[in-house]
Amino acid sequence: MSGKYKLPNRSRLRAGYIFEEIERPRQDREETEEDTYWVSWQTPMMGAFNAKVKYSFADRDGTENDADNITVLMDPFSSGSSLHPDGAARYTLSDRKQNKYQFNATYGFSNTASIGTNIQVWDDDYDAVVGLQQLKGQMFTVDLAFQPTRVLSVSTYTGMQRFTFDQRSSAGNVPWTQETEQTSWVTGVDVDWQAIPNKLVVNLGLRYTDSTGDITQVDETPGTVTELPDIETSIATLELGAEYFLDKQTTLLFRAVYEDYSEKNWAYDGFGTIQATNATRSYLTGGLDSPNYQAGLIEFGVRHDF
Q1: What is the DSSP letter of 282?
Q2: C-alpha to C-alpha distance for 146 and 116, rounded to whole angstroms
Q3: Is the distance from CB of 276 to CB of 258 less than 8 angstroms?
Q4: Phi and psi for 111 in degrees, rounded to 5?
Q5: Which residues does residue 266 pair with via DSSP β-bridges, in sequence order?
Q6: Which residues contact 98 (CB under 8 A, 6 or more apart)?
Q7: Average confidence (pLDDT) over 79-88
Q8: Is 269 helix (H, G, I), strand (E, B) or coil?
Q9: Is 87 left (phi over 0), alpha (psi -120 to 50) or beta?
């Protein structure tokens, strides 16, 4: 449900409500419900500039956790074996409140060039005894698009995404909280070329992503703080695609992708006195190291519109 109102200055005010109900048979909660309220304001057209601001609030809850279901959680903060009333406390099932803010704007330099930006900030608060407690996120992107010729268009983009989240559990009846800050940067370029106008379109894309995860674990008793090694990931991707229009209904498709993936993850490689050769760690990881690989993919297809 949504509505809009045109303000005297020709800007637009919109508001809406979304209700979502999900039945979850054979899960810890039989059903979850989520209410989302949102409001947005769009600026009037000011020459080549336009912008939009949006705020939303979402509230999710559900039925009581079913202790007789297929997955249950033993109470981690007691010496007994009583079932915890919050079940497995999966973040997709936990009660949650979310506040989210969004801003996007576009400015056109000319008929063939424009720049845009998108900013999002959100805060998720989970009502769970164990598992995910809180998640804060920020995302920022800038893109530049231009068309130097009638048959060639180019777009470049760069962006940052950061997640900060807390997870809670216990070991040997000692509660602990793991605080993680994950920051990712991405930059790329896409080129579209009409090699044969109205017949053959070729696309070339290049993308690079660099991500770092900073992890700290706090044992609540006796208050020990452990700085775990950063988890570092880099991904370079090169993609080539083409579409050949046989007629108004049939299109031939081609896609080739090359990816270079590199990761440093202490959970696989070990650190300090916990080495990768440790028998328990080798059992949990299947004897694997941090994933590092180069991979390629080639696809052919046909699309027909009836």
Answers
A1: H
A2: 12
A3: no
A4: -70, -15
A5: none
A6: 56, 57, 58, 59, 60, 122, 123, 124, 125
A7: 47
A8: helix
A9: left
Structure tokens at 298: 């080639």
Cis preceding linkage at 291, omega within 30: no
Chain mean position to CA 86: 26
- Mapping DSSP to helix (H, G, I), strand (E, B) and coil, where does residue 99 land? strand
> Alpha-carbon distance 123 to 237, whole Å?
31
Return the beta strands (E) in 112-173 as ranges.
Answer: 113-127, 131-149, 152-171
Q: Which two tokens stand for residue 154?
A: 């180019």
pTM of structure: 0.76
| pLDDT tens per residue, range 167-217 | 887 766 778 888 899 999 999 999 999 999 989 999 999 999 999 999 888
Instruction: Record the tokens describing residue 255, joined without a space.
Output: 């896609």
Which residue type is seen at 240?
L
The answer, yes or no, to whether residue 85 has pLDDT greater than 70, is no
Angstrom CA distances, 21 to 28, 30, 34, 149, 237, stand at 15, 11, 6, 49, 38
Q: Measured between alpha carbons, how far apart are the two ends of the chain, in Å?
A: 33
- Cα–Cα nearest to 275, from 263, 289, 261: 289
Beta bridge partners of 255: 241, 299
Q: How confident is the model at residue 80 (pLDDT cuts 50, 70, 90)?
A: very low
Amino acid residing at 242 = A
Alpha carbons 65 and 69: distance in angstroms, whole number: 9
